[in-house]
Amino acid sequence: MASLKRTPLFALQSAMGAKFVPFAGWEMPINFGSQIAEHQAVRKNAGVFDVSHMTQVDVSGHDAGAYLRRLLVGDVAALDRGRALYSLALNDKAGILDDLMVYSLGETFRVVFNASTREKMAQWLAAQQSGFSVKVEFRDDLAMLAVQGPDAMRIAQTAFGHDLSSLDKFAVMRAGDALVARTGYTGEDGLEFMLLAEDSLALWQRLRNLDVHACGLGARDTLRLEAGLNLYGQDMDESNHPLESRLGWTIAWQPANRDFIGKARLQAIAAADGMRELKGIRLDGKGVMRPGAEVQTATGAGVVTSGSFSPTLGCSIGLARVPAAAKGSVHVIIRGSPKQASIVSPRFLAQNK
Question: Which residue from 179, 190, 253, 255 has the least number of CB within 10 angstroms?
Fold first, then answer.
């Protein structure tokens, strides 16, 4: 059995008493104590996550833009320099290979995708290079920290020591050897720092000295679920297409002469009936929904893809792939017993305002 990888912050996090778990080939902190406290810190103030397990790739060369226009459902030609794009990579059958972020740096692009798909995506990126003058470089020298929360921008700017006030949402800028993007995976405002491994240690310490809460993957999961954000490997994978994964908005159908991988199959799917959709689901009473639970609706059965307890709402919420016509009251089978639930907007946070 291959040994688990560790981020540059592993020793520091161990000294903090972090609880580690195996995740996508990495030994990652699940929490530093109370997962609920970490979750609430991000909603109320600011938290910092070590997400150095994410795969960072630089795509450069004369055909970098054309290459990515072929590979992704989003069109990087519409991406101004210094802007970020959330997109998908599909196979020929329109199955989702991965979801990812693309940052435009001019003639070069930084692409960040999931740790769990690294080997598959590496092979896929290489297989598509034929005919393109392009260089694909895996940046294993880099770490990544995410600072999220209503106070994140103010505190992170102090800790980082650069003026970030001009950075709009879904924008990216160079700051010395680092890239700083105003993006995240929590439903809160914040920043993601892509920086040299040795620099990540100093930034983590400065953030902690400014009382930014250290957070693990457990809180990251409940935060993204409250924001209705998909998790690759649960809410979507190669057996799902974007239209049944609430990701149709990521597809740039125009210009019509751009042919991205999976486009023809997606067009056929879009014209067909019987679509399933990924919808929000909220348990009406006690209990906690988990992935794999059956959902019974008046229009047919479905399945919970992500489910957990929501610290903000004080109840169990989830995402479920159900018939498109499903709405209103449904039942979720929990430990063999049907529990009443409701189909709701997956933007759960808006329901608490």
Answer: 255
